[in-house]
Amino acid sequence: VDRFLSLQLSISSGLSVEELNKMKFLCQNKITKRRREEVQIGVDLFNILMEQHVITPNKLEFLKELLQHIHRHDLLSLVVQFEQGERHTPDDQPDEREKPFKVICANVGREWKKLMRELDLPDVKLDKVVEAYRYDLEEAVFQALREWQKWKGKDAKVADLIKALRGCHLNLVADRVEE
């Protein structure tokens, strides 16, 4: 799933009708009245803004301004985290640190959220993974570990994974990762 589209969907689902109307009002100089009237949900508004290149994955200032003006700092923080995630991932290819991921994915089970919290993964990132992989436990664990790895960047260490596993009393999994 495209991270930028996922961001838009998260923002859209968090908007009330009143907030969406405020955002449409603030777009008067960007979108014609007719197009604004067609907007029923946030995704509709974002599609129009993307068509006009007002917002793109690398051009989010206008979106941030809109969210500031409607006082939705929680949604604004999603945009900021998206931007930071983009900066911390020069390439999205798996690397050596993902080898223990397979062991963890296969053995952690339902305790995976506890592990992610032990690793201090922000709730916003955890919620995003939960929503995207609701019906695939192993993939949810894998993607959450990748989110943690992206978030930590070069500071993501296998030793931290082992420590967190032990902190969650998942010693058998920690032993397998050490092997």
Feature tags:
2 domains, elongated, Death Domain, Fas, single chain, 179 residues, mainly alpha
Task: Give a description of the structure.
One of its GO terms (molecular function) is death receptor binding. One of its GO terms (biological process) is extrinsic apoptotic signaling pathway. α7 packs across α10 and α11 (158-167) packs antiparallel against α12 (171-178). This protein folds into 2 domains: 3-87, Orthogonal Bundle (Death Domain, Fas); 98-178, Death Domain, Fas, CATH 1.10.533. It contains 12 helices and no strands. The protein is mainly alpha-helical and 179 residues long. The model is unreliable at 87-97 (pLDDT under 50).
Question: What is this entry, summarized?
Answer:
The chain has 179 residues and is an all-alpha fold. 68% of the residues lie in helices and 0% in strands. The chain folds into 2 domains: 85 residues, Death Domain, Fas; 81 residues, Death Domain, Fas, CATH 1.10.533.
